[in-house]
Design brief:
Blueprint: H1 2-46, H2 50-62, E1 69-75, E2 82-88, H3 101-104, H4 108-115, E3 119-122, H5 123-131, E4 144-152, E5 155-164, H6 173-240, H7 247-261, E6 267-273, E7 278-285, E8 295-296, H8 301-308, E9 312-315, H9 316-325, E10 340-350, E11 353-363, H10 371-441, H11 451-467, E12 472-481, H12 483-490, H13 492-507, E13 515-520, E14 523-531, H14 534-548, E15 551-554, E16 557-560, E17 562-569, H15 577-593, E18 599-601, H16 610-613, H17 616-619, E19 625-634, E20 640-651, E21 655-658, H18 659-662, H19 669-687, E22 693-697, H20 707-715, E23 723-728, H21 729-733, H22 737-748, E24 752-758, H23 765-768, E25 775-778, H24 780-788, H25 790-805, E26 809-813, H26 818-826, E27 831-833, H27 838-852
Parallel strand pairs: 17-18, 20-22, 22-23, 23-24, 24-25, 25-26, 26-27
Antiparallel strand pairs: 1-2, 1-5, 3-4, 4-5, 6-7, 6-11, 7-8, 9-10, 10-11, 12-14, 12-17, 13-14, 15-16, 19-20, 19-27, 20-21
């Protein structure tokens, strides 16, 4: 009996020991996971680039998992292909065929990427799966292979792989789990390293650019300094012509200046006596001490300058050539050391002709004169000639000039002192006037213009618009959301700092010539001038709303504000500025009532009372009288290929308004769809006999609730080949999967489908390849920017290529100017909505004229 009790105790202890070991193993595994994640975060924070980051991750894994053979593959966002980011292997090299993009898709790596699940194979299971056709095997076979998908949010962006060529080195479940955890956070770590790497690369590029710029600046400074020194030297030579000194002193100063800028150790000046045909040398300095006594005119270098009346640059070789040609004769033999190796001479020209020359020469190859020296000595010779010509007159006027200069200097000094005192008074008064004007026209808190300055600028802008209606303007009335709560909860001092920050943010959202003003409290206005379309004002409003949603922090308190914006666009019916501000305020109030944090353009309904605006008899879409406006679509041969119908309704307030605008005032979704379906049926019934008809259709009709009605109508049409439904590109870009499925069903029923307003806000190129569109109609905004901004013209070739490949017709509204149409045709657009080109109209007119002429 005692033995049985002991055995039970032992068994119980064994169970407890086993459970403790399992818990210990579990805690140890959790510790490894925690340590690995901490290590991953540290590596992502310390390594500057991926080249050093990946080896560190491999070394981190080596403590827990066999990772001697390790690589990482990431998907290229542009091409969609799997590309190798890091690779290390004991047997295969990085140039192995498996490591190229075209092999990854069908390899083990591609299998893990497609299945989005961890895969672990040994040599046997790997061969069996390959035999089943799940993947292809490349490279050296490993004994154990482990691949884990790399996630970014919920999307797989790559695969992390480790393999072992040793049979005994496999992967346990804990190691696989550790590998999966590392892969789960690897995408975030890679992104951090990439951002740091990009930042460092930008810093290096900026540093290199600054270094190059500094080097270029230093070179430019050196060149300018050299040019300034040369110019200063030439000024000194020019001043000698006006100085009251003896002619011998002039020669001496010229020689000294020449020596400071070029080689002039040996220089002489010769004068030519034309009457006696003699040369005299009033100034000469030469190291070989030749004879510079007067001599008759002969055939030397000096005579060559005088007869040619040009500067002469003579080297030893040219001197020999001149002697052989007989142009120069030497009267006496020169020794090898006494013969000059480079000679430069320039004539002294005056109004009476050439009166002499100035020459420099170098011996024994001490210096070689160049073209720059020729230009310098030519200038010097002209200065010396002027000195000689004006010497007598200068001597007579020298004394009177000195006295006059003294008196002028004294009077100039008195006037300068008086001018300085007067200028100080003028500057002080101007500062005071500017400060007074600034205080009267600017807000004291934010420094922005106030209501007075805004109204004055708006009056000038409206007057300018009346003379030049093509230069539009817009007024944005901005009211800050939650500002009263900010003042009540955080105090008026915090509110003032918030208003100052708002003013700074608003300045970042507009152009330099636009005007931002504070009307008072939390109300601001923006005046946008020189606009071409409403889209520009809409872009500014979007930037303001986005920047106002950014948090504002001050003294430890952070709040997130917002802004509601009302916009009025220039129109000929505006008679004074009060109407513009009133309508902008009404649009702002409508935006605030519609949910805040948004913008709204003014429309006439906002000026009516609530009773008028909601009177059913006046605003019910079902009761509006509608009509259609047809626009022909012309191809490259200028022949119409189809027609585009636009629906208009006669609204009691808005007048004749497009149905797309009227839909904004409808609140009942069911009513809107019924009205739109009725318009589609009516428009097609009226024009189906006129060929292919394009009709705008809302993506709302693709919803399951309304699609059966649309599909039933389409299915009952006999001439279905004459119908093309245009869907808005912005609506399809955010459509649900069910809507896209219904669109595909609609296309398969035989009706043509097309895209309208393509590239209005963004260019969804993937949408073009998703459905067999009959046509794509570019938005008016994108078409105008094609003609104005080169960046948009560079985007068009991709759209043209996709539409041509899908046999889809690329269309745009026909511009009025023939030059603009020609430019769009050169960019690749072949179809235009509207009137034909002037050239086609002229050809048609010529044809009709020839048919109706008397000769026919």
């Amino acid at each position: 009996m005692a033995r049985s009790v002991d055995e039970c105790s032992v068994n119980k202890l064994r169970k407890q020991n086993k459970r403790l070991k399992e818990l210990l193993q579990k805690y140890k595994h959790q510790h490894h996971l925690q340590y690995a994640l901490i290590g991953l975060s540290e590596q992502a924070s310390t390594h500057p680039d991926l080249n050093s980051f990946y080896p560190a991750i491999r070394q981190l894994l080596a403590d827990y998992v066999p990772s001697k053979n390790f690589y990482v593959v990431l998907q290229n966002p542009s091409s969609g292909l799997l590309e190798l980011s890091y690779f290390v292997d004991q047997k295969d090299t990085q140039s192995h065929p498996e490591l190229t993009e075209q092999h990854f898709e069908q390899s083990l790596t591609g299998y893990v990427f497609r299945s989005q699940a961890t895969a672990y194979f040994n040599r046997a299971t790997m061969a069996a799966a390959a035999a089943e056709g799940k993947f292809n095997l490349h490279g050296t076979r490993s004994e154990h292979w482990l691949g884990v998908p790399i996630y970014q949010d919920t999307q797989v962006i790559g695969v992390m792989v480790s393999q072992s060529y040793e049979q005994e080195l496999g992967y346990s479940q804990e190691q696989i789990e550790l590998f999966e955890v590392i892969a789960l956070y690897l995408a975030t770590a890679i992104e951090r390293v990439k951002k740091r790497e990009l930042l460092e690369r930008q810093v290096e590029q900026r540093t290199l650019a600054l270094t190059q710029s500094n080097h270029a600046l230093n070179e430019e400074i050196a060149q300018r300094k050299k040019a300034l020194e040369r110019q200063q030297t030439l000024f000194q030579i020019a001043e000698l012509a006006t100085q009251a000194i003896q002619i011998d002193d002039v020669y001496y100063h010229v020689h000294q200046i020449m020596k400071s800028i070029t080689y002039a150790q040996n220089l002489y000046i010769a004068l030519y006596d034309r009457d006696n045909n003699w040369l005299t040398f009033p100034y000469a300095v030469d190291e070989s001490d030749p004879d510079f006594s007067p001599r008759p005119f002969a055939k030397g270098y000096s005579e060559l300058v005088l007869t040619s009346k040009k500067c002469q640059l003579i080297s030893r070789e040219r001197g020999e050539q001149l002697c052989q040609q007989g142009l120069v004769e030497r009267t006496r033999a020169l020794t090898q050391t006494g013969r000059c190796t480079s000679w430069l001479g320039a004539p002294l020209k005056t109004a009476q002709g050439v009166i002499g020359l100035i020459a420099c020469q170098a011996y024994n190859n001490k210096y070689e004169f160049v073209q720059e020296d020729v230009e310098l000595i030519a200038y010097v010779s002209n200065q010396i000639a002027n000195v000689l010509q004006n010497q007598l007159s200068q001597q007579a006027l020298r004394q009177s000039h000195q006295q006059l200069e003294l008196r002028v200097a004294e009077k100039t000094k008195e006037l300068r002192q008086a001018n300085v005192h007067l200028q100080l008074q003028i500057d002080e008064r101007r500062k005071i006037e500017q400060q007074l004007y600034h205080d009267a026209h600017h807000d004291a808190l934010t420094g922005l213009p106030n209501r007075n300055l805004f109204i004055a600028q708006l009056e000038r802008t409206m007057a300018h618009y009346q003379h030049l209606p093509e230069q539009n303007f817009a007024v944005l009335f901005i009211d800050l959301d939650k500002f009263k709560d900010i003042n009540d909860q955080l105090g008026h001092q915090f509110g003032d700092q918030f208003l100052i920050a708002v003013a700074t943010k608003l300045k970042q959202c507009v152009r330099e010539h636009d005007l931002i003003a504070r009307l008072g409290g939390d109300e601001f206005v923006v005046l946008l001038s020189r606009l071409q379309e409403k889209q520009q004002a809409e872009d500014v409003a979007k930037r303001i709303i986005a920047v106002m949603q950014q948090p504002f922090c001050h003294q430890g308190n952070c709040i997130q504000g917002g802004a509601s914006i009302g916009i009025t666009f220039s129109h000929e019916h505006y008679g004074d500025i009060d109407e513009v501000i009133r309508d902008a305020d009404a649009a702002m109030y409508y935006a605030k009532q519609s949910g805040k944090g948004r913008f709204e353009f003014y429309h006439p309904l906002l000026s009516y009372t609530d009773e008028q605006a909601h009177r059913p008899s006046e605003h019910h879409l079902m009761d509006l009288h509608t009509h259609f406006q047809s626009s022909q679509v012309f191809g490259a041969d200028q022949q119409p290929i189809c027609q585009l119908l636009s629906a208009y309704g006669e609204h009691p307030v808005l007048g004749s308004t497009s149905f797309e605008q009227l839909k904004r005032f409808g609140s009942d979704r069911y009513e809107l769809t019924q009205v739109e379906l009725k318009l589609l049926q009516s428009g097609f019934a009226q024009h189906q006999n006129q060929g292919l008809t394009l009709l705008n259709c809302s993506a709302q009709l693709l919803e399951d609730e309304y699609f059966p009605s649309l599909y039933t109508w389409v299915s009952q049409i006999d001439a279905i080949e004459h119908l093309c439904l245009l869907f808005e590109e912005p609506e399809l870009s955010c459509a649900s999967a069910k809507q896209l499925h219904n669109l595909e069903t609609l296309s398969q029923s035989g009706v043509y489908i097309g895209l309208n307003n393509f590239a209005k806000e963004r260019c969804e190129l993937g949408l073009l390849a998703q459905f067999p569109f009959y046509c794509v109609l570019l938005s008016n905004t994108f078409s105008r920017r094609l003609l104005q901004e080169p960046a948009y013209a560079r985007m068009l070739p991709g759209i043209v290529a996709l539409t041509q490949e899908a046999n889809c017709k690329l269309m745009t509204k026909c511009p009025q100017a023939s030059a603009e149409r020609d430019k769009l045709e050169r960019l690749g657009i072949e179809y235009f909505v509207g009137q034909r080109s002037p050239l086609a109209q002229q050809k048609q007119l010529d044809t009709l004229t020839s048919l109706t002429s008397p000769a026919n």
